[in-house]
Records
---
Amino acid sequence: MLQQQQDDEDLVRLLPDDAVADVLRRLGPCDLAASRCVSKTWCGIMDARHLMLPHLLPHEVGGIFIDFNNLHSWEFFARPTTGPEISGEFDFLPSGAESEILDYCNGLFLSDDCVFNPATRRWTPLPPRPPQPASESLYFSQSEYLVFDPTVSPHFEVFIIPSRIIYKKKPGDYCYRPSRDKLDPETEQSEWPPSPWILHVFTSRTGQWEERSFFRDGEPAGTVNDMRKAYPWTHKRYAAYSQGELYVHCQADFTARI
Amino acid sequence: MAAPESGDGNNGAARMVTLISSDNTRFEVEAAAASLSQTLQLTILDGGGGGGDGIPLPNVDSATLSKVLEYCIKHAPAAANGGAPNATAVDRAELERFDNEFVNIDQSVLYSLIMAAHNLEIEGLQSLVAKKVADMIKGKSPMEIRRTLGFPDPTPEEQAEMNAHMLEYGWAYE
């Protein structure tokens, strides 16, 4: 009897991955979620074939969030009677975490401290950002962008992009401070965007920040100095994520595809 | 999947092939039935498995092979009709009854069948056994699934991993 049991145990572990996948494909979302916990092997089989993803996807637009006048007061607007109620009060977050929404992508929000989903009221903290080198911080201001595509992966990424060239006062201007405002000729003449462009990226897959290099595909938009002349203001620019590529609207109306 | 038409297909006597299990038992079966296996189909089309030669199946023991062939023989006529578009409701109900009865078996036999079905690439049998295992999983918690399917008790490490996954996918139980 014991021998028989032992044999069965070996058998279930010997089943080919494709056979297990064949079984899992026939399960609904709840049973799939339970099966995902059964063993590491099963979890791997499921993830390799993206079996879970169709069930994580929202199948319709539930509503839209609107931030009135950038007052950080979010309201959720939806057609009546559709689906669960979603609130613009992010009161499930630890206090202060909702202070500023930095970006959003496919239903997830990025704030200073965390990434959260207002529909499920779940959140995950972000580890501290890697510091920006002092020389760079005088010249470029960073923006953060959230990238999440549930059709590709259940994981999200946060990009820190030093895309804004900081406005510098000219000698003779009111409050001109050479230590802060003096232009560095070498940086001014350097190509923009640089190649490689080394960006800090957080991925929820590892839960860590990492450096990633991006290489420019094509000619630079100009020099840093050209960008400065074209548009001196440094608001955060919008970005859109589509089909594996992040499009960032930069100064001088050029769009970087990452 | 149509049964291969061999040259003597019209003279009434069905062509036979011999399959040899891992423990050296010989099974003589109609080529049309054995051809439900994608793996065997090419060999049989090439004229293999006839006469004194058999097709060796080193991964399938005789108990499993006899069960597999029982399925193939039952399903071969319907498959020969190109998925049986003109099968009567009675024929279909009979096949369904046979299928339900067929997978009402010991777990170890079921697992051996799964492996044989994948080895031999018998599409209908693959679906049938997969559906059976899926039915065994439905409505159960991860621990119950492990027990039902005969996984060994989780090590403390595996238990911790399961708990972590439960947190991540807890919504499924809400």
Note: Residues 134-257 of chain A form one domain.
---
Amino acid sequence: MKIGITCPYSWDVPGGVQQHIRDLAEALIDEGHEVSVISAADDDTPLPPYVTPAGRAVPVPYNGSVARLSFGFLSTNRVRRWIKEGGFDVLHVHEPEIPSLSLLACWVASGPIVATFHTAIPRSRILLVTYPVVRTGLEKINGRIAVSEAARTTLVEHIGGDAVVIPNGVATPRYRKAEPLPGWPGPGGAIGFLGRLDEPRKGLSVLLKAFEILGPERPGLRLLVAGRYADADELLHKLPAGLRDRVVLLGQVSEDEKVRLLHSVDVFCSPNTGGESFGIVTAEAMAAGLPVVASDIEAFRQVLRGGEAGELFANGDAADLARAAGRLLGDPARRAELSAAALAAVADYDWSVVARDVYSVYETVVLGSTEVAVTASGGEFG
Amino acid sequence: MITDIVIVVAAALFIGVYVSWRAGRIDRLHARVDMARAALDATLLRRSSVALELATSGLLDPATSLLLASAVHGTKDITSRPRDLAESDLTRALRAAFSQPDFRASIDGKEGADELLAEVEAAAHQVFLARKFYNDVVAATRLARSRPLARVLRLSGRATAPEFFEMDDSLVAENTSAPLGR
């Protein structure tokens, strides 16, 4: 099948949606499909052969932060040309509610369209989704996929219609083996964390508070922390002086470094306080066979099978986290048990499985339909 | 003796008049701050409303439209984000839309396009002016309030010190060959 996929965010900025699209495209290609992705990306960005740049990914304020998106008539023209030349059997747009390529593709295309919604839309943004230009685009979609129950719920409650839930995939083989970082995890044990440090909902502050409790109890214990941050000093100054040098910040890490980090610690912590629709990072840790301690938010409850494949602690409760992590660190047998359970649970999320689920959605929408074309009315710009 | 009394009374009278004039001046400055703030609010509202008009005009592609509408939405939702940041976001969204290469050419000739663009630019320029005037009078007021006499005698009464309104209000992008705004 010829499949066209749109990525609304800049390809070279690390992010969950970009990674999802890359892994999905590669899994579909492995299955023998012909896949073309158009992505927000500058023309000189190095791209895999199946990606077409839409030109000019512009940093703009959106939803309270700055995102690099592709919009405007030039991007529209590129999308139109890509659809015209692609001759796709199905068009798969991601996050069409974002002002970027996917919305543009919905606008200019006709024919079978599948959309994937990655995040639960916050209440304050609902109004914008019902905004006419978005609604017109969304109405053209034939099949909708939500990556989580939470994302599906907002669709059902606020936009109307339903969506099938197909969770994110994990490229599990990529995480299976890696060389630990030199000197890690060390005799006193180590806890790992991955995620933006300055995004409060990622919950690093909960983990640091728990470390204040755990640190004195377990003298050699260290924290290995990776992720983008604005001000590391400010972050660590809240910790007592004796603990500060036991927290190692790696900054933003590459894919390969990420896998090494996962093999450098004894326990992985996902202290997110909310806003997480699936928790791909948690699943990646599971794919590395790492025992996970996670907050008991809905997304983690699901991926950890209600606590069978990892420890859950009361969301936001540092003392409970310290208790759960402490118990794991002191019990190698339990860690081995959870590691095996995590590997088994995460197999359900492997991309090969997920791509087949997505493909069956394609098969459904192309029934009795012609190939994807450009609409006559869809945004003609000189 | 009599002359002494006259001098003392005259001096007391003079000081009284001077102090009350200073207090009156601070009071008038506060009133001017309020007026300038009202004018600034009015220009910000007007800018939001013409930006929304542009977003819903059908002149732009849906992504740019949604970007603008979302930024306008942010300026109305004062609970989740400070006003100055939300207004700056709207400026940046407008700038991102306007600074596309050949932006003008892309909508040239469409009905109402020139008028609407001119209106957005005018509204943005008014924000720039109103904010400048507001910050000027805030600066004067803060200076008057900070004088020793005003502080010791608490001439500003219960009125709180006015705050500057800082935001990004330039539609002209740096390093662009085709600037917009004035």
Note: Chain B touches chain A at residues 56, 60-67, 69-71, 73-74, 77, 80-81, 88-89, 92-93, 96-97, 100-103, 105-107 (CB under 8 Å).
